[in-house]
Amino acid sequence: MRVPTVESKSDLPCLLCLHGGGTSGYIFYIQTRRLQRALANHFRFVFVDAPFECAAGPGVLPFFEGMGPYKRWINADGDDEGKVRPLLQKIMAEDGGNFVGVLGFSQGARLALGLLHEKQEKHPEAFNNFGFGVFVCGTYPPLGLSSALFPITPTAQFESQYWEDRHESIIGIPSIHVIGAKDPFANKSRLLVRCSEPASATVMEFNMGHHLPVKPADTQRLADRIVRLQHNYQHELDAWQAKPLPVKASEEVKVTEIAVRA
Q1: How far apart, in whole angstroms, are the C-alpha atoms of residue 39 and residue 8?
Q2: Which active-site residues does the annotation give?
Q3: Is pLDDT at 22 greater than 90 in this prediction?
């Protein structure tokens, strides 16, 4: 399911938005309204409903009472890869936009970081267009869609030792980690930071709980950082595309002469 967003130009680059556990794409749309307005000239936000129904998550009630069904990205049976990946692929294909980054909140941040991990590890079905990630009040450990890169059983998904033992899995793709100083899950957010290369990760801590920044100044600070990430990513992409293709020494370079007649 896709939901309407704050009005923005249709040709803007897109952010794939992954909600927290026990909420929905529409609830995340409401939660991100301030950020959407701050970035209305820079991005389109595309929201997705997770495929698995569940009870309302922490802090969802009573404000979002009656706004179910509530969804989560983790299936109690462990069959996540079979539904989540095709769902994301379908939404992105139907939208047709230029997806440059992924924004995840809480459990959605776990999945967002897992998607970047797949890209870095060159998984054959990775979402290679994501140039950066924004993780807000993320929990731990990252959530993957591939049993080749992550364990997918419910027990293993919550097993922090899996990442503690895999220093080679640290992610170098640029990212922003937003932590709420009053968030009861703040320690998990800090653990999630450890999954990113220090040189590529920006950590922003606000005096808030388990939610997105509310104060206008805090929202603007986050928006400015996201825009900076996108500019850096676009600059690197343009530089890469401008490089001439290498010619192997064994290849002949043929020059065709074109006669121009007056």
Answers
A1: 9
A2: 106, 183, 210
A3: yes
